[in-house]
Specification:
This protein has six helices and seven strands. By secondary structure, the chain is an alpha+beta fold. The mean pLDDT is 92.
């Protein structure tokens, strides 16, 4: 499988130490199979860092990772489990998951706005199952979801092959 990472520069070997925390799936190197999404992220990154839009391609073999015992979490669409995971990763500095690779929908700018409305509406109960189900249902109405792959450990990053 070919995955893409949009940046302001060419990346030959991903470096976890340069990855930010508090993203959708925690600290990690994020990729997508969608060229348009990768290009958009490269455009955003190049604007911030004054670089050139660069879409980096890597090959990823999920079955090989499974055979090697890497822990892979897959979220199938906008569901309450996904929503809770996103909220915990973004907001709880003490939250650490144990997955090597996490795969699932992107929480983009539209979802960011909905998160704020959702938290205001449900207050301290925002991590409970019923409100999370309602939140997931609301954001699923936005239509197309981009899938992201987060490589969270060095073991996972070592499985990426520059294309």
């Amino acid at each position: 499988m070919r995955l893409l990472h949009g940046s302001y520069m060419e990346i030959v070997t991903p470096d976890l130490s340069k990855c930010k925390s508090h993203n959708d799936f925690g600290k990690g190197f994020y990729l997508t199979p969608n060229w348009k999404r990768a290009w958009q992220m490269g455009k955003r990154s190049s604007f911030i860092h004054h670089g050139t839009i660069t879409v980096n391609a890597f090959l990823f073999y999920p079955k090989r990772c499974e055979q090697k015992g890497l822990s892979i979490k897959i979220f199938d669409g906008f569901a309450s489990e996904w929503a809770k995971f996103i909220l915990l990763n973004r907001e709880n500095a003490d939250f650490k998951h144990s997955y090597d690779i996490v795969i699932g929908p992107v929480a983009d700018a539209i979802v960011d706005q909905e998160i704020e409305h959702y938290k205001e509406e449900f207050g301290i109960a925002y991590l409970e199952e019923a409100p999370l189900k309602e939140f997931a249902s609301r954001i699923s109405q936005f239509g197309h979801e981009y899938i992201q792959y987060c490589f969270c450990t060095q073991r996972a990053i070592d499985e990426l092959i520059k294309d």
